[in-house]
Amino acid sequence: MTWTVAPEAPDSPAATALWRAYYTEVSDRYYLLHEGRRTDPAELEREIAAQSWEDLRPPKGLLLVARFAGEAAGTAGVRLLDAETAELKRVFVRESLRGKGGAPLLVRAAEEAARARGAARMILDTRSDLTEARALYARLGYTETERHNDDIYADHWFTKDLVDLN
Question: What distances in angstroms separate CA 46 from CA 9, 49, 60, 62, one per listed residue?
Fold first, then answer.
């Protein structure tokens, strides 16, 4: 069984299904932690409808979809913020396929895509309850930094230089 990663339109059927799985998981995790409940289905639908993936379309962005044995398994997005800075967005691997190397593969592919677009630095934000994500970013060389945005759900901010310093 092998992984593949390729760019895909953010509104493709595979990307849409993965986005729904991503949002359901992170939303449920938040509400279970903070309110002891799962996301209300109507709220989930409103939030999904309100989200736009337009910033993950070329030329300023890119959505990568990972497949495991041909099955759509995960996503990572890259959004150019300026000439030298890219932001890593929506890193997600379906729960049933975690631990098989997909997340590091997606992040590295996103870094390569950012470099190819001229970025010298990747930034990202995440939440405290997404402990697996924070561990992944640290393992891949990301350093925790000061706040770089005003996302109300973000608790941790990371950066990584994408240029070879040697």
Answer: 22, 5, 26, 24
Instruction: Give the 3-state secondary structure percentages of the chain, helix then strand then coil, rounded to 5.
Output: 40, 30, 35
Domain boundaries, the chain: 3-120
pLDDT at residue 22 tops 70:
yes
Residue 26 has pLDDT above 90, yes or no: no
111 CB neighbour count, 10 Å cutoff: 20
Unique residue bearing structure tokens 């070879």: 164
Handedness of CA 107, 108, 109, 111 (dihedral sign): positive
Which residue is listed with tokens 């109507």? 42
Measured from the Cβ of residue 143, the count of other Cβ atoms closer than 10 Å reads 11
Span 101-136, pLDDT tens digits: 999 999 999 999 999 999 999 999 999 989 999 999
Confirm if 128 and 156 have CB atoms less than 8 A apart: yes
CATH architecture of 3-120: 3-Layer(aba) Sandwich (3.40)
Q: Find out whether the peptide bond into 104 is cis, omega within 30 degrees of 0.
A: no
Under the phi-then-psi rule, with left for phi > 0, alpha for psi from -120 to 50, and beta for the rest, what region is 15? alpha
52-102 per-position pLDDT tens digit = 788 999 999 999 999 999 999 999 999 999 999 999 999 999 999 999 999
Which residue reads 């595979």 in tokens? 14
